[in-house]
Amino acid sequence: MNKNWRWLPAGIVPAVIVAASVSGTAVAEAQPQLPAKTAQELLEFVATGSDEAYSGTVEQESNLGLPDIGMATPPGGTSSSDPTSMALELLTGEHTARVFVDGPDRARVQVLDELAERDVIVNENEIWSYDSRANEARHVVLPDKDAVKAELETKLQENAAKHPELQDLPRTPAELAETFLAKIDPDTAVTVSGTSRVADRSAYELLLTPEDPSTLIGSISVSVDSETGVPLGVAVQAKGQEDAAFEAGFSDVDFAAPDAGLFEFTPPAGATVTEAPTADELETELKAKTEGKTGENTQSLPAGSPEKPTVVGEGWSTIVELPIGSAGLMGLKPGSDPDAGMGEIMEIEPGMDPEDIAGAQAMLDQALTEVDGGRALQTALASVLITDDGRVLVGAVGIDQLIAASQQ
Amino acid sequence: MLSEITVLFRRLRTWAMIGALALIPVLIAVVVRVSSDGSGSGRGPAFLNSITQNGLFVSLTALTVAIPLFLPLTIGVVAGDTIAGEANLGTLRYLLVAPAGRIRLLLVKYAGAALFCFVATLTVVVTGGIIGALLFPVGPVTLLSGDTVGIAGYFVRLLLLALYVTVSLLGLSAIGLFISTLTTIPVGAMAATAALAAVAQILGALPQLEWLHPWLFTNYWLGFADLLREPIVWTSFADNALLQAGYIAVFGTLAYGRFSTKDILS
Amino acid sequence: MTIRPPEESALPVRTPRVNMASLAIQTHGLTKVFGKQAVVGGIDLAVPSGTVFGFLGPNGSGKTTTIRMLLGLAAASSGEINLLDGVMPRDARAVLPRVGALVEGPAIYPFLSGRANLQRFDAADRHTSPSTRNARVDAALERVGLGHAATKRAHAYSLGMKQRLGIANALLAPRELLILDEPTNGLDPQGTREVRNLIKSLSDDGTTIFVSSHLLAEVEQMCSMVAVMSAGRLVAQGTLDELRSEGIARVRVTTPDHVEARRVLAGLGLDTETHGRDDVVTAELSVPGLLPETVNAALVRADVRVRGFETSGASLEDRFVALTGEGFDVAG
Predict the structure, then answer these.
(1) What pLDDT score does C280 carry?
(2) According to the UniProt record, where is the region Disordered (chain A) (predicted)?
(3) Domain contains C264
(4) ipTM, 2 dp
(5) B interface with A, Cβ–Cβ below 8 Å
(6) Statement to judge: residues C269 and C184 lie in one domain
(7) Is the CB of C93 inside 8 Å of chain B's CB atoms?
(8) Is A89 contained in some domain?
(9) 3-class SS shares of chain B: helix, strand, coil, % to 5
(10) Domain count of chain A?
(11) N or C: less crowded end of chain C, CB within 10 Å?
């Protein structure tokens, strides 16, 4: 009367589940066969992709070597009133965003947080950003398309917590690829390294390898959809690292025009709505900024910066130096005061959650190290130096080079 | 099946648990109402601050509060009691001699537990809606994406939400069913089930175990927020359903293996 | 419980009316081992259809475990079981609906009424018709005398009422076989009699009834056939008469000449016993073929003044004590 066969299903089912999950991964890794394209052809192909309409889910993963903010924040997530921790939060761990694009003029990005969401909606010359946790909306009306683009850039950077050098808020892969492709110069080797499958579509792999020995960036690879030319993924490899330091790509994508209603945004009742400066004011400000640029690789500044940044070096090893006072603006205080404990390294705003403050402090405590002449933060892809006199230097280079630049 | 439902819902204990669940939104609403003078400080569960502006948020807040603890606890009681409870009363032998058939009994018991999941979730949502409407103004609801939906659209989403949470709890119910076949002491099975839910959530909160997270049955428990986006993110619904189906398959077959070979000696 | 008028004599011993070839229960080498201990060790039961079959044995002799195996609740370690026309547990679905059972006392949902309890158990069998359920439940409750307490919550039932509810559960549908484990447990003498009458009437309807008990008197009053369990083994099986005839009759002589009487009995090869009374001599008729009348004639021939001469027929009690050893709870 052996009844042991009745246990058989209990053995088979887990085995089937394991087999299915393993074979599922194996299928996804098969490389597609595609007609050969040169790097130049592929870049042009990418340029045509900007008129496409599509929607999809973007997964972003960073492995910059920063402490995980998730440990230091309350379970509800970070408070958006604390820009420093929010930026760092976006830089660490994983994030999921949904992207809706209808040609170059309409786009919506939704960063999906747990029980919350951050949205940026671009509709012709109107831009809305919305944060569900704070229930805050920002509205900008721009006079023309080019200005819209520039402003979108600014807005995105502002959303990345007024911390321009760490502006890795997940954006559309198209935007990210454009940023990187714009950096192509004689210092960069551009090749088509092969094919891959991204979001169940076949893609070309465009590989950019800096030939500058001092930069921390090892290579940047862009996955370009083989049918539409839309970049589907970006991965940035740090020198000497096995895994990508920064990765963003579609996990699923649908090349159908998204519902037009998605780009119409009306701020919800009860939300705090901030209107951006009028178009005229903005134009003046933009003009001022453009004139202030000293090099082609200058990053935009948060609005209201006291002084203009200076740029040292060029190409991949460019170092941006923000003038005295910048550290305070970003919520960081220089450590020049010998009595300054970690409590003073942050600018504590009234109304901030004490837990958030404690969390961000603990994180900064881990991240910043004392160096000659200031405090420094080294990540896999970039370094930040806060000098004792309040300057901030940032670049995709080692700390030593930042220190050297700060002493010039 | 009908008989199983009758037995489940004629128990005072079942109603006590449903009453306790209904109390969550009521308590939240009353406390917020009483202390609604100060503006929200950004603390507490999500949506809490929105309640004063729109009573319909009581349901969401209550659900967020109930998911990690109260719902798993009550489901642990019901699922842990399925077989062990009958064994403890001795009624299991009469059901089997009737004959109910062991597989059929397992299926019916599981269906009963699943129904309880739905009723429990719906209780939180519906009482939340009622008490919210009584104590606070009610109007169109703002979604996480900042878009606004009318009350009818919101109720459709709430129903989906209840469905999502129900599906989320099915894996735990299957675990409870299996544990329940291991013992004749229902309290032991209940405690073990509820404790497993707690353990899974703790493991899910440890970033060091990130590789494990997609395999935890609690992984998508708070993913119900994806139904409050515009447009709805269905992937978490699908992923959750798939994960729970996996748990049902594994623990369902384990329960079958155990129960069909078990000597009923109680 | 509806008390039927005592149509038959109080002596319940009846001979099986049914063809012995048709067996309601049959086992071969049925064994149950828990750990290393054989709780039931290779028993061969044969319960003819239509009989009231007593399954007798002390507590812990393996009766309930055997019944659990018969009903498919526990798996046999080895051996075969035929129940009605099926093989257990393979044909449980086909066979069990025709079997009513009371196993190791009643079990109830205390939070349900008596009627709801029965409705629940009836619904557990998918072959029963829901349309006749209420009528059948009420009929079963009436039959065991619980009609007045049908809507009362079962946790308020007395032990006897619970026992009656358990019996009612076994009677929910027309059954070919009833397996009743200690059916009179917890019942007062009145209730015990009612159960006895109920079993009799059910048996008259043609139902085979398999009653387990540790009470000899009960089995003796109800059953025509009996099997005796002791320490997991079947030590005897047959009709009551067969068992009795295997027993040894006794003689009891009342006489003033007890010394002479003892001598005569000893001369016949019997061992006499003393009782503290000088005028009574008893002895087992342990010599094969020796009849009581022969003993009496011998006494008279020896001029023993016989004041009284009694034979007590084969005492089942003695027989069972002999079979099951010490500790048998004979009197209950």
Answers:
(1) 83
(2) 288-311
(3) yes
(4) 0.84
(5) 41-43, 45-47, 49-50, 53-54, 64, 139-140, 142, 144-148, 205, 207, 222, 225-226, 229-231, 233, 235, 246, 249-250, 253-254, 256-257, 260-261
(6) no
(7) yes
(8) no
(9) 75, 0, 25
(10) 1
(11) C
